[in-house]
Design goal:
Blueprint (H helix, E strand, L loop, with lengths): L14 H14 L5 E2 L11 H10 L15 H15 L8 E4 L1 H13 L5 E6 L3 H9 L3 E6 L10 H6 L6 E5 L11 H13 L3 E5 L22 E5 L12 E4 L5 H11 L5 H12 L1 H24 L2 H4 L10 E5 L7 H12 L1 E2 L1 E2 L11 E5 L4 H18 L1
Parallel strand pairs: 1-10, 3-4, 3-5, 5-6, 6-7
Antiparallel strand pairs: 2-8, 7-8, 9-12, 11-12
Helix pairs in contact: 1-12, 2-9, 3-9, 4-5, 10-13
């Protein structure tokens, strides 16, 4: 007899991971592939973080659990980061350390919503939100953020959602568009959420990676927002799997209990590395250098890729993505990504991973890699477009 399997376990896969697997297969055949699919810095952790790991390894305490909420020096360092970047006073008790921001929004969904609740997210948006929401029984409500509106989610579209959603998860800078909401735009959305009883989860994982535009934190307007962040992007530590949440006081206890029961605690050695990355001055100046490299990489792609490939491209003001409108080249982004990989040796992510309706008309390029990789990718894509369109 067939054993039971839950409906909620039938999730869409993360297309970018599928592309990575295909790229790895080609690499095994000695093909040299440019990796513009994955949103992962090609640099490692800051030197101070690596040194902190080496120094801590012989201490037995490193090999045990920490408190579920996270190590005290790390929670303090994160709170201090809010003073430094946004002039906000955050009580370290409101900081929860998580396994990447991925665990942060899973925990936030579980703590804030009940099965059947409705949570809005932008379309295009980060597909893991949608997939995870399904797995915990939430209904996703689309908030458009496409070219017609300069890729910016609008308050009036949020107001028009009927029935009103129970929550909103929003990333600024955005993945995949790179759009950064200005202070007024974010404040208006955060205030509307507070006034209307809509729980705001602000995914600020790309903060620090902006190009000449201001970034603001949802907590500047809404003390009840949940902010999710991570050491993966700005701090260049994806594999360490450390993130954090800033949560309102009434959620400290429920989130602490949920973490105790789900993961007990975040890997101790990674928390030690993260503490160094967020507190040591030398780490902070090293990281500023990465942001400058991303800006150079972005400019190479925007200046060198054919107009026909970029189309009505999203602004790329933050994060490390270009969301190209490839509608003049193809109406099937999955097939286009496949051809770019097989015929031009460039791995990209189909827009279908981010936009359930128009994603077939877009491709996301990550410029988190090295500058040489971007130069080569721009050459390869340009030649491919010339020969094939
Ligand atoms: C918008 C956004 N949020 C969250 C994540 C998850 O990152 P992590 O779990 O490594 O912190 C990603 C990863 O690409 C992302 O793009």
């Amino acid at each position: 007899m067939a054993l039971k399997r839950s409906d909620r376990s039938y999730l869409n896969s993360f297309m970018v991971m599928d592309v990575m697997a295909k790229a790895a297969e080609l690499e095994r055949m000695d093909r040299s592939i440019m990796h513009l699919e994955v949103g992962q810095p090609s640099t490692g952790a800051p030197k101070a973080a690596s040194e902190a790991i080496i120094a801590a390894l012989n201490d037995p305490a490193t090999h045990g659990y920490t408190l579920s909420t996270g190590m005290t020096p790390l929670r303090r360092g994160i709170a201090q980061h809010y003073k430094r970047w946004y002039d906000l006073d955050i009580d370290p008790e409101r900081v929860m350390v998580t396994v990447g921001s991925s665990m942060g929004f899973a925990m936030a969904f579980l703590t804030c919503f009940d099965v059947g609740d409705r949570v809005a997210m932008t379309n295009p948006g980060y597909s893991a939100y949608r997939n995870l929401m399904k797995s915990v029984g939430l209904e996703t409500v689309d908030l458009p953020a496409r070219a017609e509106q300069d890729w910016v989610p609008r308050l009036e579209d949020l107001e028009a959602l009927s029935p009103r959603p129970d929550g909103l998860i929003l990333a600024s800078p955005s993945n995949p568009t790179g759009v950064v909401l200005n202070k007024d735009e974010l404040a208006a959305i955060a205030k509307w959420c507070d006034d209307n009883g809509v729980r705001l989860i602000s995914d600020e994982i790309y903060h620090g990676i902006t190009f000449g535009v201001e970034q603001s934190c949802a907590l500047e307007t809404s003390p009840s927002a949940i902010v999710v962040n991570s050491f993966s992007k700005y701090f260049s530590m994806t594999g360490h799997r450390v993130g954090w949440m800033i949560i309102p006081e009434d959620l400290i206890d429920p989130l602490d209990r949920l973490t105790q029961n789900c993961v007990i605690s975040v890997p101790t050695i990674s928390q030690i590395a993260a503490t160094a990355a967020i507190t040591e001055e030398s780490a902070l100046s090293e990281l500023a250098g990465h942001v400058e490299r991303y800006r150079i990489n972005r400019d190479i792609l925007l200046n060198e890729l054919p107009e026909k490939f970029l189309g009505n491209v999203a602004p790329a003001e933050g994060a490390f993505y270009i969301y190209a409108d490839t509608s003049q080249i193809s109406n099937d982004s999955i097939a286009l990504a496949d051809r770019l990989l097989n015929e031009a040796n460039v791995a990209t992510t189909p827009g279908a991973d981010f936009d359930t309706e128009q994603g077939h008309l877009a491709i996301r390029l990550s410029f988190a890699g090295s500058t040489d990789e971007m130069k080569q990718a721009a050459k390869n894509i340009t030649a491919w477009v010339k020969n094939n369109t």
